[in-house]
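Appendix B: complex inputs.
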Amino acid sequence: MLFTWFILAGLIVLFAPQNITNKFQFAFARVFRCPLSIGRSISLSLPVQQPLTNGISRREYNQLQNHLANVTEQLNLKHKELEDLSGMRIRLPLAGARLLPAGVIRASTRGLQSELIINRGRSDGLAKGQFVLGDNSIIGTICDVANREARVRLFTDPASRIEVKIPRLDVVRLMQGNGSNSAKIPMVSAIDYNIKVGDKVFARSKPGLLGTPIIIGTVAECRKDDKKPLLWDITIKPACDLERLEDVAVVIMNP
Amino acid sequence: MRWLRFAVLLCLVTVLQAGLLAHLENRPDLLLILLVFFAVYYTTPEAIITSFIIGFAADIIVIGSAMGPQIISFGLFGTLLAYLNRVIAIRRMPYQAVAIFVTGLLTGAGAHLLASLKGQAPTPNMYTVLFTSSLYSAIIGPFLFLPSAWWMRIKTHRFSRY
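Resulting structure:
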């Protein structure tokens, strides 16, 4: 009898609308926010052997900073020239966007779901579909929003589909996550395109959600597909370390 | 059954599973270990109640997923294990490890089947994750029974079939 009642309760929960049942899950994340964050901090502080190539010298860092400053100034100059020539006021792509910083409560970057739970929600202006940045690169999109928390589906999640572009070859495809901290770009012809390891991959701009293409990752592996030799099997690795992210920024266009 | 102690233990295990272990690629399922522990060392009605409550905890830690599959799956297989325990004693550690492994596979497969009924898309490496998670749980599970028994103030040689 006890078993029957519990099974009945389970079935009611199973067939209840997901926006109602999600409230329990977000409530858990809210109530246990502190211990969950502490647990994550402990796991991040565990010693991990970092490859030496991750570090750069101060000289190289200064060179990159100088290069960035020069490129930014050249961009501003060209932008001003364009405005003068066209006689119209043109906004830079992300000038009207608001980057809302958010802390990561919980992260799951491997396994069946690759996701982050962040401490911003509907009350902060978050909505489904908005892009999320980590270390200045796209890491995923908002897929569930509660009042004060939201779930970010990382682009490495098997359910994620993001339109991307490889600018060097002008290839536009739908990138799919594969659940092991990487993603795949399918249906790229091995005859027409010469894809190389290290090629940059950008998330395509999307009206109302992303004003300009932003880097999402790089080609980590590229080989002929065993089943379809005329196509590439392209593996994309994230442009930032998804496992060790502590803060992210949500792109809110035209707030 | 000390229900307050059970609630504290469940909260601790749920937070550990969702926080500390969440970023590991191959991780044991602490809630599964807890399920087998209560099915083995407690009476059948207590095992049924705890199985469904642990299933609820397993459902709420995965935000965005459908709720209900783990409740039903944990409840169903936890109950079956409790009844099986009345017939076949699961006292020795190797038997407990086998029980955890098999229960892990069955609850995982059952939960995914129920989730697919609700329209949730299956993930490509689902069975690999399920297998490794069950295996790791089976390896460390019997050792975690000892601190759990200490916390619940029971003696591990106590064995209830009713």
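Chain A touches chain B through 50 residues (CB under 8 Å).
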